[in-house]
Each structure stands twice: as C-alpha cells, then as structure tokens.
Give the backbone structure.
Amino acid sequence: MIRMKLAVIGTGYVGLVSGVCFSDLGNDVTCVDHAAGKIHMLQQGEVPIYEPGLKELIKKSTDAGRLRFTTDLAAAVRNADVVILAVGTPSLPNGEANLSYIMEAAREIAGAMNGFKVIATKSTVPVGTNEKLESLIRQHSSHSFAIASVPEFLREGSAIRDTMNPDRIVIGTESQQARELLTALHQPLTDRILLTDVRSAEMIKYASNAFLATKISFINEIANICEKVGADVTRVAEGMGYDKRIGSSFLKAGIGYGGSCFPKDTEALIQIAGHVDYDFKLLKSVVEVNRDQRFNVIRKLETILGDLSGTTIAIWGLAFKPETDDVRDAPAYEIMASLIERGAKIKAYDPVAADNFQSNLKHSRISYCLSAQEAALGADALCVLTEWREFQLIPLAAIQTWLKKPNLIDGRNIYSEEELAGTEFVYYSVGRPNMS
Ligand code: NAD
C-alpha cells in the first residue's frame, strides 16, 4: 500500500538518502535533480555518492516501483502531496548561506503547482528563509500550500542509519494540515517528534551544529593544553564523557572538523547573529580554534624534519571523515596547500575520496596513489588525516618498512601505546603527552 506521494528536490547526500529511506517505508518517491548526469546514473542503478548501504536500498525500492529519478521537477511536483526541498545551501564568500538554489527551486515548484501541497524544507536555511519561500511561492502560484521547516540531522557515513533511527524529528510549521501530514510521514521513524514554529525549527539546526562544533573545538583546545601539562586527552575525554550532562560524543581530539555542514553552518550562524547586531563571540572562537588546529600537523612535521622543502610527505585520508567521499572543507586541503607552500612533495591516498579531492586540488608536486602502501613508500613522514578503518588494520611494523624514515603524525589518535611499543616510530598524536 502506498502511504504518501513525495517529490524530493535535490538528490545529493540529504535528498537521495531521505528519498530512498521514505520509499523504503512504503511511500511513493520521485527524486528530482537538475544535474542530468546524476539522474542518468541513478536511472542506470549507479549511485553518484559513496554512502554505505545506499546502493542496495535504492535497488530494493526501484525494483518495488516505489522510487524513481527525474530532472522533470514540474511533473514530480504535480504528482506529489508533499514536496521536500533538499537542495544545497553552500557558503557565499562572506560566510552567509547562498539561497539562490532554494529560491530557484521554490520558483519552479510554484510554477508547477496543481493543488494543495505541503512544502517541507530539509535544507539548512537561515532563520526567516521559509517565510521568504512562502511569499515567493505565493507570488507565483494561486494554489494553496503549507510551508514547514523539517531540518535534517543525518551524518554522512551513517546517513541511512541516522535517517531510519533519528534522535528526533523537528517539524516547524504554522499549518495544522502540514503538521498532521508530516507527523504521519515521520511517525514510522520515531515517536520523538518536536512540533515548533518555523523560526525555532530553523534555529534548532544551526544551534545544534554550532554546539557540536563547539564541543570539537573545546576538546581540541583541551588536547593542546594536555600536550603541555602532561595529561592524556583521551582519558580526560573519557572521564568527562561519563558525566551525563556532558556526554561522550564529539569529544575526540584531532585536526578539527570539516565537511559540508559544520564550517558553513557555523559561519552562517555568525552572520545570522551579526544581522541582528549580535556578536557571537563564542562561535567566532570555535571557528578560529578549528582553523588553527589542522596546522598542528605542519608544526609537528617541522619539529621532526625541520625545513620541509624537498621532503616527501605521505598523506592518508582526504575525506573530512571516514565512510564518505565528501571532501567539502576537508582539513586535508589546507594541510596539503601548506606543505606545497613549504616545498614538500606529497603522496596522497584515500580509500574512496581521492577522485573528488583531486578534481579540486591538482599540483605537480602531489601524486595521488592507489593504495596506502604506495603513498607511504619512500616517504619521510606519514600523516594520518582521516581515521579510515583500513588504516587502523595495517600493522605499524609494515608501515615502518614502507617509509624512508619512521616518522608518523597521527592526526586522529588511531594508534595506541601498545601498538607503538617495539617500533622505531617518531610519533606525534593529539593531546597524548607520551605520544605527542
Ligand atoms: P548536495 O550538494 O550533495 O546536494 C544538493 C543537490 O541539489 C545537488 O545534487 C544539486 O544538483 C541539486 N539542486 C540544486 N538546485 C536544484 C534545483 N533548483 N532543482 C533540482 N536540484 C537542484 O547537498 P547536501 O549535502 O545533500 O545538502 C543539502 C542540504 O542539506 C544543505 O542545506 C545542507 O546544509 C543540509 N544538510 C546536509 C547534511 C550532510 O551531511 N550533507 C546534513 C544535514 C543537512
């Protein structure tokens, strides 16, 4: 039995996963994107992004006839009861969210309306944006509709699990009809559905990401102090995390956050605050700490090797985190650019993200390798920038034989003291005094 008819506009990390999961729950879903190449791939059963489990789930739903892909937004909207907006809202150069994609999609939706629709925004948008969408659609359509803000909280790498088992669903709308329809749509996922006004829902998304980013920058600063005072940040974080008021997640010290959400959403919230004459000092510091944290890798390399000019540095991990091919705002960009600036050669490897990364950063002194071993062979030092499981499974003894010099900068604390015992590594990790 078909539950609801959905059109999902924007078939990226959020739209594709949401569309696939909703179709798995028995809804009839049309995923729309204006990128014809992406849609063509999906129609052929290929998946344009790397996300564990996604390909299998797409096949299951397309085989069952509940999921299809198209560039024809108008037809998809006409056939739908609920239209989900999941287009990108990337940063403008000044840090504000670029709303041109969502406004464009809203205009197209307005032109296609043929009766009452609920239009639910999953894209992360500044407070007040849904009201702007509403007036824009009203200007271009005489049909009735209801707007809702339904922010998305999934994490790349575990996107299907997160979508199917969310901690909460937030539905912000002034419309009773939208509230009922969207509650019914999300009820199979969780009972924890928070109904709010539109502006609060929009703010919940930014406040949540800003808070998580704050936890990361906080533990990174604690790690930096730990290195100086002789404490071990992993034990400190463990001891803090047992306190239920604090919680253990997002307390892993490392080289800082990256990705398509935290950097842009923190910058956007600083701008949102600025527009109402509020100086969000705490969040500005969070961003600054994060920007600097990645350069600890360079500082530690220089401590070991001195001048980096003429050295060969192996880089393991280009994605901003494991289990994704997303390289947006990955710390590896600035680290590698800084190595190039210092005259080093780079041999880089990532299990799935190298192609995406390479299309943004090419240089005669960077070679992209096909295996972890190839990248490490003959290098003066190895830097681990992403904690892919694949790297953790490689014995340190093997890595030592591949490198020209046994120098290891572990930006994600993936190796233990026991594993290092008996090796000759000069080893630096993050916030662990015996290993920093
Ligand atoms: P994405 O860049 O992967 O996908 C966006 C898609 O929208 C692209 O495929 C693009 O071609 C398409 N698009 C843009 N304009 C269009 C239009 N007018 N018509 C049809 N298609 C159009 O972005 P994403 O990572 O999926 O993020 C989408 C939104 O969700 C953003 O606002 C983001 O902040 C938010 N979000 C992302 C994540 C995440 O982990 N990626 C998590 C939570 C929220």
User: Anything to note?
Assistant: Residues 198-229 form the longest helix (32 residues). The mean pLDDT is 96. The pocket of nicotinamide-adenine-dinucleotide is lined by residues 9-15, 32-35, 38, 73, 86-89, 101, 104-105, 122-124, 152, 154, 156, 260-261 (CB under 6 Å).
